[in-house]
Amino acid sequence: MRRFVIAGNWKMHKKTEEAVNLALELVPLMSDVRSVDVVLCPPFTALDAVGQVLRTSGLYLGSQNMHYEDEGAFTGEVAPAMLLPLGVTHAILGHSERRQLFGEDDTLINLKVRKAVTVGLIPILCVGETLEEREGGITEEVVGRQLDGGLEEVKIADPEALIVAYEPIWAIGTGRTASPEQAQEVHAYIRARLTQFFGAETAGKMRIQYGGRVKPDNAGELMAQPDIDGALVGGASLDAGSFAEIVRSA
Ligand code: 13P
């Protein structure tokens, strides 16, 4: 019922020329993919060039962050109005690396989510707990708080206008992955929480991605879970063959 959505978060990798080459490799590999929304999220410096490669490809372009104002004295930031003309359609917001390394909190992330929705960018709102929080038995409390904070006053007319990504921090860039059952448990919880915000009909149609060491060898079983509607892929998205395999396993 829900269309899978798979995004590649290239993080701080790929200089412009390398990013263009990766996009050029991916486009033909994806040309027969009809049933999955595929989003490539290169660094800001490569958005324009990658956007040009993707123009007629059917693949979507995403940013890894954005500011919530249209313009102003915000040194080092990028406004949504600067992203839209490049063909950007999605924005990863509240990634755990932004939260942990750059001090982003739910209040700031909420301003970004609201802005993205207002200008027609699809936020990929990331939530997830640390290992300590999981072992302390407070995963749902943490994820619930991140959702409540991030989604405050967010209104969407279309269930596909907002994506949530569950990324357990202990599984990002580490050797560990959440088991499909562990991931499904949290995804079901997230959907229940989305129901409180948007009602059952909308929440039932919203996409929830899983992220954290998604690779070709585990993507299929993760996405076979009833509430896992795609993946947010880090490391494995930097290799065209691996990313294409993940997309094909949806
Ligand atoms: P890895 O796939 O490298 O674990 O990264 C996950 C992630 O953070 C995607 O946003």
Task: Describe this entry's structure for a reader.
- Strand 2, helix 2 (44-54) and strand 3 form a beta-alpha-beta unit.
- Helix 5 (106-119) crosses helix 7 (139-151).
- The protein has helices at 16-30, 44-54, 80-83, 96-102, 106-119, 131-135, 139-151, 180-198, 200-205, 216-223, 240-248; strands at residues 4-9, 36-41, 60-63, 88-93, 122-127, 163-166, 207-211, 230-233.
- The mean pLDDT is 97.
- Helices cover 44% and strands 16% of the residues.
- It is built from eleven helices and eight strands.
- It has an eight-stranded parallel barrel, surrounded by six helices.
- The longest helix has 19 residues, at 180-198.
- With 250 residues, the chain is α/β, with parallel strands linked by helices.
Helix-strand layout with pairing:
Blueprint: E1 4-9, H1 16-30, E2 36-41, H2 44-54, E3 60-63, H3 80-83, E4 88-93, H4 96-102, H5 106-119, E5 122-127, H6 131-135, H7 139-151, E6 163-166, H8 180-198, H9 200-205, E7 207-211, H10 216-223, E8 230-233, H11 240-248
Parallel strand pairs: 1-2, 1-8, 2-3, 3-4, 4-5, 5-6, 6-7, 7-8
Helix pairs in contact: 1-2, 1-11, 5-7, 7-8, 10-11
Bound molecules: 1,3-dihydroxyacetonephosphate (13P).
